[in-house]
Amino acid sequence: MSKTIKGFSKLSKSEKIDWIVSTYFTDSKSAKALIKQYWNTDQKLQQLHDEFIENTITNYYLPLGVAPNFLINDQVYAIPMAIEESSVVAAASKAAKFWFDRGGFKAEVISTQKIGQVHFIYHGNPETLKTFFKTIKPKLIDDAKPITKNMEQRGGGITSVELRDKTDDIKGYYQLHATFETLDAMGANFINSCLEQFAKTLENEAQQFELFSAEEKDIEIIMSILSNYVPNCLVRAEVSCAVEQLTENQNISAQEFAEKFVQAVNIAEIEPYRAVTHNKGIMNGIDAVVLATGNDFRAVEAGIHAYASRKGSYSSLTHAKIEDGIFTFWMEIPLALGTVGGLTKLHPLVKLSLELLGEPSAKELMQIVAVAGLAQNFAALRSLTTTGIQEGHMKMHLMNILNQFEASSEEKTKLIAHFKTNTVTHNAVVEAIENLRR
Ligand code: MEV
């Protein structure tokens, strides 16, 4: 049977499912039942989800958890997190509680500039192109007015457009490099619409520019697109306290813990193998909040990792120091987020998450997300430099195995007590359950 199909997108949802299950599944009945089991019984809600993307067959759930007790700039937040990985929400909550008692998190937005580019090819005289750009610049802005009018009324819009010569890298390659202020919107649609208008104006005006030769008039637009690299859309999050307040557990002094912690950060600053894992832990916190609030985590990921390599080598996003007896731990990251537009008014759980956060502005959300990332890194380094992470993970692992064997609460209590002093491995847990049940 052919595994390819023409016109799949034209089929109805149930025709799509029928084709999928009969073509790719041995037990097509069970596959179809599972697909349908994940449909929402509220048809309107299901239709809303169906229409987010194309060829929807069902829903894919992620848990939405909450990490409470985050004190950020003297305000308390309960942070929504959509994530499948166990321990992340627990770690965030633990870090929140730890810093709540030590003055909380401080966060500030440093800048909010978004970027977009029109990439084009021009093989003529560079000086004539410069003159052309100067001449048409007001028209570029003017032609985009229908798109920018509303944004301008709210205080945003296009903040600059410049011509960049990239011919040293690719023959004939130039850019219109533009910057934008998009306020509470992430701004992707706004920026891309402006850029596509710039490209049209550029092409049309070139045809009429008298100083261009016949060949020079034919500017070739390659593409017009925003950049997800936003090194000037920056937020900083920080925690600090006296070193002696960093009491961790009886096995390590506050001073020793602080010093080990700073060393762990230093290692991630200079060692890319460690930096990637270190930053992955930060992204556990960031992505979860970005996703819960309906933002584009792929854009955020791409931009942040580019920022982590801005000095030519991939490095830690966080930094730490001890100075005059004060421990300070901080991070600066680029974040282009929106609290209006996109999914924010469409996805009911995104609306819920934003309400939970007190309907934040984009700037506030930048601060909250950065804090979630910093908290996550604090929690990870705190375990790594003291008990190791397996202790916590193994507890979750134990619970997962116990649930898999449908252990009763009485069995769970006994086995949790047993594994306080015994190493958790899959075999050891299975054996212990069997012994108990014998
Ligand atoms: C696991 O998801 C994240 C950690 O590996 C992060 C780290 O090593 O810092 C625990």
From TrEMBL:
Metabolic or biological pathway, per its Swiss-Prot or TrEMBL entry: Metabolic intermediate metabolism; (R)-mevalonate degradation; (S)-3-hydroxy-3-methylglutaryl-CoA from (R)-mevalonate: step 1/1
The reaction(s) this protein catalyses: (R)-mevalonate + 2 NAD(+) + CoA = (3S)-3-hydroxy-3-methylglutaryl-CoA + 2 NADH + 2 H(+)
Record EC number: 1.1.1.88
Record carries keyword Phosphoprotein: no
Keyword Oxidoreductase (UniProt): yes
Assigned keywords, A-Z: NAD, Oxidoreductase
Highest taxon of source: Bacteria
SUPFAM superfamilies the UniProt entry points to: NAD-binding domain of HMG-CoA reductase (SSF55035), Substrate-binding domain of HMG-CoA reductase (SSF56542)
MF terms (GO), sorted A to Z: hydroxymethylglutaryl-CoA reductase (NADH) activity
Xref: PANTHER family: 3-HYDROXY-3-METHYLGLUTARYL-COENZYME A REDUCTASE
Protein family according to the UniProt entry: Belongs to the HMG-CoA reductase family.
Protein name: 3-hydroxy-3-methylglutaryl coenzyme A reductase
Lineage: Bacteria, Pseudomonadati, Bacteroidota, Flavobacteriia, Flavobacteriales
